[in-house]
Design brief:
The complex is a heterodimer of chains A (88) and B (329). Chain A has three helices and no strands. With 88 residues, chain A is mostly helical. Chain A has one domain. The longest helix of chain A is centred in the C-terminal third of the chain and has 26 residues. Chain B is an all-alpha fold. Chain B folds into two domains: 78 residues; 217 residues, no CATH class. Chain B contains 14 helices and no strands. The longest helix of chain B is centred in the last third of the chain and has 32 residues. Chain B is globular and about 65 Å long. The two termini of chain B are 44 Å apart. Classes of the chains: A mainly alpha (88), B mainly alpha (329). At the A-B interface, helix 1, helix 2 and helix 3 of A face helix 1, helix 2, helix 3, helix 10 and helix 11 of B.
Amino acid sequence: MYSIATILILVAIAVGLVRAFRGPTLFDRVMAGNMIGTLTVLLVAVLGFMNGRPEFLDIALVYVLISFVSTIAVLRVYVSRHGDPDSD
Amino acid sequence: MQYLVDIVLLGLLMITGFAIVRMRSLLAVTMLTSIYSLFSALLFVVLDAVDVALTEAAIGAGISTILLLATVALTTEYEKVPGHRSLLPLLVVTLTGAALIYGTLDMPHYGDPNAPVHRHVAPEYIEDTPEEVGVPNVVTSVLASYRGYDTLGEVTVIFTAGVGVLALLGVHLRKRTEQPHDYKMLVVLRVIAKLLFPLILLFALYVLFHGDYGPGGGFQAGVIFATGFVLYALTHGLGNAERVIPPALLGVLAAAGVLLYAAVGIEGMLLGGKFLEYNVLADDPVSGQHLGILLIETGVGITVAAVILIIYFGFVSRRPGGADAQDPS
């Protein structure tokens, strides 16, 4: 059960990674990075339960709480360089 | 199953590393480095190194990406294509890598119980921790108690890094010309950030005070604290963030953490023990250990959070290419 979930999540991560490499725009990559972050949270949780170490949920929680901060930072830098894409 | 996960994760790590080298858009590269750190944290999880995984999660997912972005905001967005072929460096790197791989042939196998690293002091730490220190997380007892002197050195190094950034970049306190409309449009982000800000600080406190029992400790807690304030600065503007936590206070806090750590050591001496001996801090040696570990972890957390915020403010309060460029925060 946990093994199947692990394999499926790894496949999903690999697919997301393809999008992160191919782009073509920055937003595709940001989106892919965000998705891989979410999948990592899932994988940490699944691995924790599979190995009988639910303490790993703390790590998943850290990711949930702070991984989006870097996404916001990327987009802030983009907006300060190129302006808001919505405004034109 | 374990092997499969190991091999797939190592493969993904390698592919991401190559992609980082090949890519020229630095914003995309920062995104990929954060993905790279996700994979290495996952590997630490697979290796059962909970504390290291938590550190990688706290630093890799948040702070290091943000500091890289702050640097990109100050410089250029695209890496220049080098005009020459770097064959000689490639040769040097390949030879060094081959020598390193050759060196590993002599090393004991992964997980070998007879490896020197498992036979030196580690068995004593694992056997003696329950009665001597009384905390379930052996990593914390080694870091904070058995090797407390080393950790004091590490905190001093972090403090020195903060002093170095302050001396080189400084945190400019001058009145900032912040355009309020910049942050008005971020309504959704501001509301979410305000909701999450107290939760992040609460979780940092949990990591700090729960470090004896679960993964975590002062270092990770400090990083999470700093990330909370960085989130505030990103969504509410640098000026507001500087009003919440003034840079002058950050300098004092960075020093206060190291001083708290050293003071615990000296307090042990005054009470008749050795430097950083916690047994004498309370009537009962084990509760003395608990008290000492909690105090020094707090000191580590304060210094780490303050230094990271000093570095962040130092980077983003500079303006790229002169005074009239745009606010990179």
